[in-house]
Amino acid sequence: MRKYLIYLGIALAGIALSSCSSKQKTNEEQTTTTTTETAVVADEGVDFFKAVPKEQLEGEWTVQKIGETEMTEVSLTLSFDIAKNRFAGNFGCNDYMGNLEFDDPADDDYDATEIDFDDLAGTLALCEHMDIEKQFTQLLDKVEHFTISENGELYLLDDFRKPLATLVRK
Fold first, then answer.
1. Tell me: the pLDDT tens digits for 81-90?
2. Which end of the chain has a smaller Cβ tally under 10 Å, C or N?
3. Are residues 119 and 140 in the same domain?
């Protein structure tokens, strides 16, 4: 009986700690929302809510910026094959590929700007700029939306529509 009381105490402590953790996360999310809303408006007048047909993604793009950092040391590419819902690219050394998922137009809350980069796989050669490869890989996991500006730049955006990367058509 004593053993069961110990397990019950551990379980209750875990529940109590996890509820504190989720409350803290909610406060952090609110702070992030406030911070990123200003970033959406601040980027050179680009409308990050503008929906463009996903077919405009088709083809090969070069990563110009990750966040605010210009890509001068390494050439990253990203290609879209919309008919097959696939993406691929090159990190400058390693190749990568995966599946694309877009929001379903039949959904009640359809959003034409939604995109997910799924099932990322790639080659694993040891390269000079592995930090940039890792950063871009993590970035693809955070992408929730996209848009293409009037001057043809592709923006990969997070859930708050903050630009994560800027690409130009190759």
1. 999 999 999 9
2. N
3. yes
Give residue 130's pLDDT: 94
Residue 9's domain comprises 1-42
Please tell me whether residues 78 and 100 are part of one structural domain.
Answer: yes
Residues of the chain with pLDDT under 70: 1-44
Cβ atoms of 118 and 99 closer than 8 Å? yes
- Please indicate, yes or no, if residue 47 is contained in any of the structural domains: no
Q: What is the pLDDT of residue 45?
A: 80
Give the span between the Cα atoms of 63 and 127, in whole angstroms: 18
Q: Which two tokens stand for residue 129?
A: 């700029």
Q: Count the neighbouring beta carbons within 10 Å of the beta carbon of residue 66.
A: 19
Per the prediction, the chain carries an average pLDDT of: 82
Is 3 in the same domain as 75? no
Strand-pairing partners, residue 146, are 156
Distances (CA, A) of 66 to 16, 42, 139, 163: 39, 16, 8, 9
My answer on whether 9 and 78 are in the same domain is: no
- What torsion, rounded to 10 degrees, do the Cα atoms 129, 139, 64, 122 define? 50
